[in-house]
Amino acid sequence: MSQKKHILLLTTGGTIASMPGGDGLQPSDSGVFQREMEQLRTYYDITVRELMTLDSSNIRPAEWQLIAQGIWENRQGFDGIVVSHGTDTMGYTASAVTFMLPNIDIPVVFTGSQLPLIDMLSDGPDNLRTAFAMAAAGHNGIFLAFDRKVMLGCRAVKVRASGFSAFESINARYTALVSNAGLSVDEMMLPVHTGQPALRTDISDEVFLLKLTPGISPKIFDALMEMGYKGIVIEAFGLGGINILGEGLGAIRRCLDKGINVVVTSQCLYDSANLGVYQVGVKLLELGVIQGRDMTSEAAMTKLMWAIGQGLDNQQIADLFAQNLAGEVTV
What's the distance, CA 248 to chain centroid? Predict the structure, then answer.
């Protein structure tokens, strides 16, 4: 009989670990995982360590840093790491940690559930099994497992508030699927490692994600400048359309002139922002905005936060967005 893989479960709270409280469901400690871990120990040698106990709505950049550091410090001696996390912001955390742990030398799989483990019908046990299988499969990188699917952490977006198929892999095939053949990994979708693993958690929280609406006042850009933001990710229309009539173009130019990094993505979940198609996009490119291409808003925002936190200048950040670091963008 082959030796069991040694898998670490790092817990952070979330629905999967929640218990009923006086004001509704609230995250409990890692003890709620005991029953599921006893079953999984048939297949794996498991260690459980608690990082925090938070609803993911309360997980901020400071917690992203703690999670990345926890993964880095605990990776020695394990074959893989599973991170349990609330679903609401798991896409942001998985993307941020992807950039904070470049070339990570261990499989790291985020997962959670839409119903708490204490519920008889919880999707948590199934998600944990998928996550542990991926963590034991020997493919290094940051992944997210949900509803028998595994995707790159930097491509995952929560698309359903309560349905069990809560996450989709946007503009990228699934990394792995669970079927009657077991865990089938698409090796073409695994991240390509280009150097030594590192821990780089410095990040800026002075980045704003702005969703455009028809007729939005360009004064919003001046307000963001006054508030001290260093980066703006604009969810534009379609291929990257922005209202350039009136003061729209001038407001964006003022941001760029002040050294604010402006990244343009699309409000459409699928396909790519392409500013070279329409006049409005060409004018933005001429000003110096950065194309987000087919990145998710979560990945574009966390990549910009991380790039600013690393102390890169505007040109270096533009160059970084033209690179695929961990599968987050098609270039």
Answer: 30
Residue tagged active-site, from 12, 15, 98, 111:
15
Categorize the per-residue pLDDT at 101 as very low, low, confident or very high, splitting at 50, 70 and 90: very high
User: Residue 7 is which amino acid?
Assistant: I
Establish whether 130 is a catalytic residue: no
Which positions ≥6 away from 113 have C-beta within 8 Å? 14, 15, 16, 87, 122, 123, 124, 127
* Backbone angles phi and psi of 250, in degrees to 5: -65, -35
For residues 18 and 311, give the distance between their C-alpha atoms in angstroms, rounded to a whole number: 38
User: Are the beta carbons of 300 and 266 closer than 8 angstroms?
Assistant: no
- Sign of the four-CA dihedral 126, 88, 168, 103: negative
Task: Please provide residue 232's backbone torsions phi and psi, each rounded to the nearest 5 degrees.
Answer: -135, 130
H/E stretch holding 98 reads: helix 90-100
160-212 residue pLDDT tens? 999 999 999 999 999 999 999 999 999 999 999 999 999 999 999 999 999 98
Residue 229 CA, chain-centre distance (Å), reads 21
Joined together, the tokens standing for residue 192 give 């390509």
CA dist., res. 90 & res. 222, Å (int): 31
* Edge-to-edge strand ranges of the sheet holding 141-146: 44-54, 5-13, 80-84, 107-111, 141-146, 149-152, 176-179, 182-185
pTM above 0.85, yes or no: yes
SS3 sequence, 161-219?
CCCCCCEEECCCCCCEEEECCEEEECHHHCCCCCCCCCCCCCCCCCEEEEECCCCCCCH
